[in-house]
Amino acid sequence: MSLFIGIDSGTQSVKAIVLDLATRQVIAEARAPHALIGGLPVGHMEQHPRDWTTALDTVLREVAAKVDGSRVRGLGVSGQQHGFVPLDGQGEVIRPAKLWCDTSTIAECAIITRKLGGPKAAIRKTGNLVLPGFTAPKILWLKRHEPENYRRLRHVLLPHDYLNFWLTGNYFMEWGDASGTALLDVRRRVWSKDAIKAIDPKLAGWLPPLSGSHEAAGTLKPELAKRYGFTAEVVVSAGGGDNMMGAIGTGNVTPGVVTASFGTSGTIYAHAGRPVVDPAGEIAAFCSSTGGWLPLLCTMNVTTVTEQVRALLGQDFAALDETVQATPAGAGGLVLLPYLAGERTPNVPEGSGVLLGLNQRTFNPGQLARAAMEGVTLGMNYGLRRLAQLGLKAKEIRVTGGGAKSPVWRQLMADIFGVPVVAMVEDEGAALGGALQAAWCVAIREGNPKARLTDFTTGTVALNEATRCVPNPANVARYRKLQAVQDQLSLALRDVFTAQRKLAQ
User: Fold this and answer.
1) To the nearest whole number, what is the mean pLDDT of the chain?
2) Beta bridge pairs of residue 397
3) Cβ contact 347:129 at 8 Å
4) DSSP readout, 428-457?
């Protein structure tokens, strides 16, 4: 039977899994790290795309050595969203990619928003606000700050599109990842002429034509197929952003399922059969990589915060869990505003981290560790409550990512969210999503136009019931009060953040 490879290229590494469609089991895995470019000014976050392709080549070689390559039929790529990969006319990378977590484009967001007619007009024309994390302001940043590089620009790709280009030689973009650029009219799934004009009318010729998420980016280049021992007919599916593919990998392909990803950043999202546009712009009105829509909230600071606290305390993961477990819920009133990299939901790009409630009783490792874990989860709950206001109320949340591996953190999630949480059997949800989308794409290409993603997620995606946590009513009540404090603190300090950032420059 057929094998399908799923790739997840994230901020820290590239991961690959091989799915055996006959047994619905993952039979091989590999991972290769890559790094951020160091020494950049505050707010600038960049990577070399060649590091992604080097890591991709490494993991493909590794998994290919573990399976019968002649059985591999398709490959699907998940990639970090919103990054800007600028290419010249020959397809060469012009400069390093600016990433989703780059907040250096605050001025460009303001310029584009003004040209669109203001925030409400931006939402009306595209479905989303123009935020620093998105791709559109990064393009304008290049135009304003590196005009020589901008003059060379002929192709705009997102990170997963660039990996598809490396694999197939084709310029390709699908609805899901494209909706995170702030250049797409998400209601109609077409490029927004107004958003493009706000940057440069020529940009219309530098964006790939849009394709459906069920379509193929192409077939694997012959030289790559030979290198990995695959046949010449291996299909590379459309792929998508990491959240879109994570939705597929957690079975979030029909209404009623809510997924939370606790990784470097944090996301919570749900499937919808129609566009869900937030009039306030706090929930991203994304398209999915399934043909539907994926209303999504994103916070910039999750495991980046807990990892820095863990390093500060000199603890391993087990020790950090024990420290948090031994500290009562609420951390004695110590509240962390976890904006170490600014924040996206709520939109506070100039924000910084703040600890409220430090005193002789709370200034200790246990309270600091607990406050960090609680602070980032309360930050995600801010957006979860907004999703509920838009009619997408969770009854259960499927959790994935590094944070979901911690039993202590899962219980904390359940208490803060106020609903049960459960982890997945296969935690590499984005990579699994890539493999499942590839299987769906191949089925359609081979003459089954009625194939549905649920044909492949059912029987493959599974909940790990041993990880299920239900809310503790006493802790739920305590966290509601802490949530109000964190929300009030965030609102009160936004003007202060702006003033403080100017001092730091």
Assistant:
1) 95
2) 258, 421
3) yes
4) -HHHHHHHHHHHHHHHHHTT-TT--THHHH
* CA triple 491-264-126, angle to 5 deg: 60
Q: Strand pairing of 235-237 and 216-219?
A: antiparallel
Residues in the chain: 505
Residue reference for tokens 């549905």? 452
Please give the C-alpha separations between residue 89 and each of 93, 149, 170, 207, in angstroms, as whole numbers: 10, 12, 13, 12
Domains of the chain: 3-250+437-460 (3.30.420.40), 258-427+465-504 (3.30.420.40)
Under DSSP, is residue 247 helix (H, G, I), strand (E, B) or coil? helix
Amino acid (1-letter code) at residue 176: G
Non-local (6+) Cβ contacts of 452 within 8 A are: 440
Q: Which residues are catalytic?
A: 242
Classify strands 421-424 and 266-270 as parallel, antiparallel or unpaired. Answer: unpaired
High-pLDDT (> 70) share of the chain, %: 99
Check residue 327 and report its DSSP letter. Answer: S
pLDDT tens digits, one per residue of 264-307: 889 999 999 999 999 999 999 999 999 999 999 999 899 999 99
